[in-house]
Amino acid sequence: MIHIKNIHKAFGDNKVLKGIDLTVKKGNVVVILGPSGSGKTTFLRCLNALETPDQGTISFDDGSLSVDFAQKPNKKTLLALQRKSGMVFQSYNLFPHKTAIDNLMLGPVVVQGKNKAEMRKDALTLLEKVGLADKADLYPFQLSGGQQQRIGIARALAIEPDLLLFDEPTSALDPELVQDVLATMKQLASEGWTMVVVTHEINFARDVADHVVLMEGGYVVEEGSAKQLFEDSEHPRTQAFLQRID
Ligand code: ADP
């Protein structure tokens, strides 16, 4: 469905991504694991055009979009890429002075120019979906971290993306709130959403991932099914990584 080829990204002299290839199939959940500093977040941000890769291509099988970063894509192309995916951030990134429902409506009303009344109805449906319909008019500071993150997920859904990107969505949460957010993500996976998830939650990867990718030092070290990576891998880097997190 989405073919990502040879993504390179440097910040000054710091070469962070050194040629990442990945194919994401429609309806699949891809989990990206790897030690801190290996480039996982940068890669996710490249998929959403929050960072612009120095070279590489991203193309959608349905012919809707194909971006070649070596050709310096224009703003319109980058915006089109941005609209393909909804991003869920580690620190939620909600607007603190907007209510839960207004946080959801901002993207669709401002960016997509949707009708406000219609969007309010859709936003309430999304809040229901993440179990927070009764919190619509509360501000982020009145919600727990887990609730804020579920608002973050609903906001990512609000723009009706092809793809959901999660950047360590549970790592800022108190341990007792992590399961709530993982349950919401599992529900989305079972509904057939295409998801790319950077996480340290190995059990989530084991239970939910169709495809697991291990990154290190700006490269994909190994990829395959959860079973291939967690049980059958003979790759020394994979074994070293799994030993560190056990
Ligand atoms: P991971 O998500 O695997 O921990 P990151 O993608 O966050 O890795 O970071 C990889 C490297 O890229 C780090 O060395 C980090 O300092 C660098 N980096 C990330 N974003 C920026 C940025 N905006 N400017 C400069 N360096 C950055």
TrEMBL record:
Annotated ranges, domain ABC transporter: 2-242
Membrane topology, record value: Peripheral membrane protein
InterPro entries cross-referenced by the UniProt entry: AAA+_ATPase, ABC_ATPase_HisP-typ, ABC_transporter-like_ATP-bd, ABC_transporter-like_CS, MetN_ABC_transporter-like, P-loop_NTPase
Keywords: ATP-binding, Cell membrane, Membrane, Nucleotide-binding, Transport
Transport among keywords: yes
A Pfam family that the UniProt record links to this protein: ABC_tran
Record-given protein name: Amino acid ABC transporter ATP-binding protein
Source organism of this protein record: Psychrobacter aestuarii
